[in-house]
């Protein structure tokens, strides 16, 4: 059987998983690929660890550029992360006519447009299944399985670290910081976990799915990004009392005015399957006009689940490396000349239902003032809950769920509510999604 030589850049969590799974399932994988896929060279700055993992099965170097320039290497697998060095390495590999597989969503979301244009010119594959929702074959589903559909919206739990944190906080009442440490230990978190907890990693993945779903260029800089660091256990509890779960959701929707591209904590009805996705698991709902809503579920992070996607890409490369660029699945699902920009809507222009929590002095008339402010702006109320003041407290929590309104309208209403003398501090606002239709 012919051999495909792989140069692996970075043998950390995902690189190590890739090396091990490829070794363990070698026979099964080559029966599928029609080629023996072999990691022949590994670059990692931690040479000792790389040598320990590879145990003599591959040449090890600390010079990643020597791998992308090595004429014996057919495919470069980039698993170092970050955008600066990774971009240089990937562009150099493409320039040298090598196919590329990467799990690096930051790289694709920020520099994908440039990378795919370079790859198209050189007739090489750039595959990135592992970059979105880890082991779930969501790129495959979006690019191939749903090709008949006009995609209407995509919504997903696409960051394992934050879903793990939210689950542990809800189920075990643990503090945010303790759970983050555990997620790091388990290999889920990014090198800089701010990317996870501030929603940046999810926004990278959402940007990629939005581009593939709607045939638009990658526009990460226009994404609205809000993480989970300000989320309180109290809001998670109140949401639950009202029949909802709070998840960090990435949502992208095609509307008449443009495309919504937003990541934020979101209340989802608990009866939805996606509301019950826990731990580091990911789930993505894609709504196509023909197929309706479809749900994809699986491990979104971790060594072997992510390796599963990396190796699936390697199998695709093995099968398709001799084809010409126009015989292959296009990088972003649409033919490159058919990628057309659509405006990304600012967050003020999106429409959503809302969860509002405010603290009010326990005086008569406050509720009437709040409902009048909402009514004056045509914001209708779906549900309301008032918590009696506890023990020595003189203030009560009021929780309101609204029907759908434009965010700009809600901003004005919140400002007016916060200006009421009886309202203490600021109003907590969380967006809600039905995800049904
Ligand atoms: N950990 C996960 O669950 C997932 C990670 N990813 C992505 O996969 C990529 C790799 O992530 P991890 O494996 O978690 O990271 P990691 O930090 O465990 O591994 C990175 C490896 O690259 C090596 N490295 C760093 N700088 C280098 C340099 N200049 N030259 C040579 N080697 C260098 C490090 O020594 C390390 O072994 C990232 O882009 C990440 O976003 C994607 C999906 C899931
Ligand atoms: N840090 C990421 C890793 C996978 O993409 C996550 O937690 O989802
Ligand atoms: Na994937």
SSE topology sketch:
Layout: E1 3-9, H1 13-24, H2 26-33, E2 36-43, H3 47-54, E3 59-61, H4 64-68, E4 75-78, H5 84-95, E5 99-102, H6 105-122, E6 126-127, H7 138-145, E7 151-157, H8 160-172, H9 176-185, H10 194-197, H11 200-214, E8 224-225, H12 233-241, E9 244-254, E10 259-269, E11 281-288, E12 292-299, H13 303-320, E13 351-361, H14 366-376, E14 381-386, E15 395-402, E16 405-406, H15 407-418, E17 423-432
Parallel strand pairs: 1-2, 1-4, 2-3, 4-5, 5-6, 8-10, 10-17
Antiparallel strand pairs: 7-9, 7-11, 9-10, 11-12, 13-15, 13-16, 13-17, 14-15
Helix pairs in contact: 1-13, 2-13, 5-6, 6-11, 8-9, 14-15
Bound molecules: 1,4-dihydronicotinamide adenine dinucleotide, the ligand N[C@@H](CC=O)C(=O)O and sodium ion (NA).
GO molecular function: homoserine dehydrogenase activity; metal ion binding; NADP binding
Binding site for NADP(+): 9-16
Enzyme class: oxidoreductase
Written overview of the protein:
The chain is α/β, with parallel strands linked by helices and 437 residues long. The protein folds into 3 domains: 3-135 and 304-338, Rossmann fold (3-Layer(aba) Sandwich), CATH 3.40.50; 138-299, Dihydrodipicolinate Reductase, domain 2, CATH 3.30.360.10; 347-432, Alpha-Beta Plaits (2-Layer Sandwich), CATH 3.30.70. Helix content is 37%, strand content 26%. It contains 15 helices and 17 strands. Strands 7, 8, 9, 10, 11, 12, 13, 14, 15, 16 and 17 form an 11-stranded mixed β-sheet that branches. The protein has a 6-stranded parallel β-sheet with strand order 3-2-1-4-5-6, sandwiched between helices. Helix 1 crosses helix 13, helix 5 packs parallel to helix 6 and helix 8 crosses helix 9 (176-185). The radius of gyration is 24 Å and the shape is elongated. The model has no long low-confidence stretch (mean pLDDT 96). It binds 1,4-dihydronicotinamide adenine dinucleotide (NAI), the ligand N[C@@H](CC=O)C(=O)O and sodium ion. Keywords: Amino-acid biosynthesis, Metal-binding, Methionine biosynthesis, NAD, NADP, Oxidoreductase, Threonine biosynthesis. InterPro entries: ACT-like_dom_sf, ACT_dom, Asp/hSer_DH_NAD-bd, HDH, HDH_cat, HDH_CS, NAD(P)-bd_dom_sf. This is Homoserine dehydrogenase. NADP(+) binds at residues 9-16. Pathway: Amino-acid biosynthesis; L-methionine biosynthesis via de novo pathway; L-homoserine from L-aspartate: step 3/3; Amino-acid biosynthesis; L-threonine biosynthesis; L-threonine from L-aspartate: step 3/5.
């Amino acid at each position: 059987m012919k051999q495909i030589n792989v140069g692996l850049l970075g043998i950390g969590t995902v690189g190590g998983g890739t090396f091990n799974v490829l070794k363990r399932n070698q026979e099964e994988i080559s029966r599928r690929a029609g080629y023996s896929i072999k990691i022949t060279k590994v670059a990692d700055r931690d040479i000792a660890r790389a040598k320990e993992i590879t145990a003599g099965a591959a040449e090890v170097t600390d010079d990643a550029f020597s791998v992308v320039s090595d004429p014996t290497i057919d495919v470069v697998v980039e698993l170092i992360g970050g955008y600066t060095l990774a971009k240089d390495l990937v562009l150099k590999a493409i320039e040298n006519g090598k196919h590329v597989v990467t799990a690096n969503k930051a790289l694709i979301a920020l520099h994908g447009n440039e990378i795919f244009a370079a790859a198209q010119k050189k007739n090489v594959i750039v595959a990135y299944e592992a970059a979105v929702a880890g082991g779930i074959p969501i790129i495959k589903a979006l690019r191939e399985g749903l090709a008949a559909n006009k995609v209407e919206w995509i919504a997903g739990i696409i960051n394992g670290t934050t879903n793990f944190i939210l689950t542990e906080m809800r189920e075990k009442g643990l503090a945010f910081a303790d759970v983050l440490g555990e997620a790091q230990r388990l290999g889920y978190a990014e090198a800089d976990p701010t990317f996870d907890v501030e929603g940046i990693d999810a926004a990278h993945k959402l940007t990629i799915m939005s581009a593939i779903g709607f045939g638009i260029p990658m526009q990460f800089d226009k994404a609205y990004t809000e993480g989970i660091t300000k989320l309180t256990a109290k809001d998670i509890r109140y949401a639950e009392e009202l029949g909802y779960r709070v998840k960090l959701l990435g949502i992208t929707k095609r509307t008449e005015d443009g495309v919504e591209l937003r990541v934020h904590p979101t209340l989802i009805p608990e009866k939805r399957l996606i509301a019950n996705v826990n731990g580091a698991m990911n789930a993505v709902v894609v709504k196509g006009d023909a197929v309706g809503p479809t749900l994809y579920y699986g491990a979104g992070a971790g060594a072997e689940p992510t390796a599963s996607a990396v190796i699936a890409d390697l199998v695709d490369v093995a099968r398709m490396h001799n084809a010409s660029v126009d015989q292959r699945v296009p990088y972003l699902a649409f033919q490159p000349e058919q990628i057309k920009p659509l405006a990304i809507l600012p967050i003020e222009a999106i429409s959503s239902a809302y969860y509002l929590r405010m603290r009010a002095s326990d005086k008569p008339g406050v509720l009437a003032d709040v409902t009048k402010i909402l009514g004056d702006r045509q914001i209708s109320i779906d549900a309301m809950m008032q918590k009696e003041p506890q023990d020595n407290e003189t203030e009560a929590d009021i929780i309101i769920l609204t029907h759908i309104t434009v965010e700009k309208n809600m901003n004005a209403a919140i400002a007016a509510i916060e200006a009421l003398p009886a309202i203490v501090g600021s109003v907590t606002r969380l967006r809600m999604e039905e995800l049904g239709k």
